[in-house]
Amino acid sequence: MAVQVSTKWLGEMRFESTNPSGHNLFIDAGEENGGKGEGYRPKALMLSGLAGCSGLDVASLIKKMKLQVDDFKIDIDANLTDEHPKIYDKVTMAFHFYGAELNEKKLQKAVDLSIEKYCGVMEMFRQFAELDVQTHFHKK
């Protein structure tokens, strides 16, 4: 399956990028790198892609398993190497589930299925980074 994205320079350090969904996003450097900070930073966008990929998997599994979850979020902390090309070499991904009736065993299974089987972005990250995935349950 081919995926096409087109990214157009808007001047200075700003770009607009298409997406197969039809929604566009803006990419810009921070002021420290000659930009105005009016868009996503490319490396941070990779982390959002990782969280989004796994989050979609888990949300789908929550629905299929008919689990009671009031809310969940994914926090990512990543270490960027000092030398060029700067890459993420260590990534910690923390799933936080909130609710009064959390089925911890099934939610952990949903996370495990995402990180071990379904999330292609996770597999791509495995090629260059050490991954630490954590699951936290917050009962209300």
Can you walk through the features of this model?
With 140 residues, this protein is α+β, with helices and mostly antiparallel strands. The protein has two domains: 40 residues; 94 residues, GMP Synthetase, Chain A, domain 3. 32% of the residues lie in helices and 32% in strands. It is built from three helices and six strands. A three-stranded antiparallel β-sheet has the order 1-2-3, with no helix packed on it. Strand 4 and strand 5 form a beta hairpin. Helix 1 packs across helix 3. The longest helix is centred in the middle third of the chain and has 23 residues. It is globular and about 50 Å long. The chain starts with 6 loop residues before the first strand and ends with a strand. 13% of the residues are buried.
Brief overview:
The chain is of the alpha+beta class and 140 residues long. The protein has two domains: 1-40; 46-139, GMP Synthetase, Chain A, domain 3 (2-Layer Sandwich). The chain contains three helices and six strands, in the order E-E-E-H-E-E-H-H-E.
